[in-house]
Amino acid sequence: MNELQPVLDGESLITPAAVEADIAALHPSHDGDQLAIATAELGLVLHTARQGFESGRDPVQTMRWTVEALHKTRRKVNPRVWRALIPLAQEHPVAEYFHRDPFTRWSFRKPRGYSGDARLLDFIYQHESVQGDVADALPVGQSLYAYSKYYPSCVAVRERRDLLTRQVDEIADERGQGTEVLTIAAGHLREADNSVALKDGRISRWVALDQDPMSVGSVARDFSGSRVEAIDGSVRGLLTDAYKLGTFDFVYSAGLYDYLTDAVAIRLTKRCMKMLKPGGTLLFANFSPELTDDGYMETFMDWTLLLRSEADMWSIVNASVDRNTVDASVFFGENRNIVYAVIRKRD
Ligand SMILES: C[S@@+](CC[C@H](N)C(=O)[O-])C[C@H]1O[C@@H](n2cnc3c(N)ncnc32)[C@H](O)[C@@H]1O
């Protein structure tokens, strides 16, 4: 680890070792035959993908085919068998081709020491700050990125950013001058770039909290002179009320619950409800099990997420609030790759 990397707070940041332990506890044994068959099937997928790249065929065709094949394998086998397959894919020579895609490479190498950092999200947002990396990639890498940035999961993340901008603006319309917003795990706060309410001064305070000092520095720089306050803080600090942030009209988090176990997600949701003013709104988002690039993400990107269904989101809501005091809803984004929970505290 280099000195710029954040200290992981133990309340989130799913690591491969943590997933391994959870899966081992849930599925104490697996059928050795299934592992042998799955290993052979995966070997064939990887071999075919390698041949595809080496044949000089359009690399995008190979990537599309591999993403689908890995998704099918992941769905078919016991989760513990799947975890055993992941290193086989990662160590296979074909990985080198996929890592020519700058987006896949950044995810796999984790230069900030953990999965799903804000710069990775900038590859999804096609933000100008990553254009240098894209320009420096080999032509095959550029072609792969031109495809990978349109994975359904990436389309859903861009929709999520825009949905958040709209939510902030609508809440500021409703609540008026002096609206206060808290973003937990803000990353680079890209959703604020297009917020009309921020530009026209209806937001009096927009706290952007993240555990990665580099992301906090980026927000402080990009939004200096605005009502955005970048705070270096963690879920753990929020749970113990270490920052004394007060209350807000809107509290939300995107790209965080995917790393939180149910127990921590419920504790955080309860804490967030305490930080809402009467009539305030909490929103949290999570990737759904309808993701189709899950197998590719977990292997060649080494990016593991906790996927949640509508029912899983309702379980968190129901365990966190008294339903007589709130209005709650759970809904999918357009391509159902991301699911949202919204809880409004009654006045
Ligand atoms: C996938 S990014 C999402 C960034 C942003 N919300 C977005 O949607 O573009 C996840 C962010 O969560 C932050 N994060 C992860 N665990 C955290 C924790 N325990 N406390 C605070 N921030 C955390 C990371 O530093 C990273 O910036």
**Which ligands accompany this protein?**
S-adenosylmethionine
Order of helices and strands: HHHHHHHHHHEHEHEHEHEHHEE
Strand content: 5-15%
Unreliable stretches: 1-7
Shape: globular
For the sheet with most strands, the description reads:
7 strands, mixed
The CATH homologous superfamily of the domain at 154-345 corresponds to: Vaccinia Virus protein VP39
Helix segment tally: 16
Query: Structural class, from secondary structure content?
Result: alpha/beta
CATH architecture of the domain at 154-345: 3-Layer(aba) Sandwich
Question: At the third CATH level, what is the topology name of the domain at 154-345?
Answer: Rossmann fold
Radius of gyration: 21 Å
Helix content: 40-55%
Please report the total strand number as a whole number: 7
CATH top level class name of the domain at 154-345: Alpha Beta
Spatial separation of the terminal alpha carbons? 47 Å
| Mean pLDDT over the full residue set | 93
Spatial order of strands in the largest sheet = 3-2-1-4-5-7-6
Quick structural summary:
The protein is of the alpha/beta class and 347 residues long. The chain has 16 helices and seven strands. It has a domain at 154-345: Vaccinia Virus protein VP39 (Rossmann fold, 3-Layer(aba) Sandwich).
Set down the secondary structure blueprint.
Elements: H1 16-26, H2 32-54, H3 59-76, H4 79-91, H5 95-98, H6 102-109, H7 118-125, H8 131-136, H9 139-148, H10 152-175, E1 179-184, H11 196-199, E2 203-210, H12 213-222, E3 228-232, H13 235-239, E4 248-253, H14 262-274, E5 276-287, H15 294-299, H16 310-320, E6 326-332, E7 338-345
Parallel strand pairs: 1-2, 1-4, 2-3, 4-5
Antiparallel strand pairs: 5-7, 6-7
Helix pairs in contact: 2-3, 2-4, 3-9, 14-16
Bound molecules: S-adenosylmethionine.
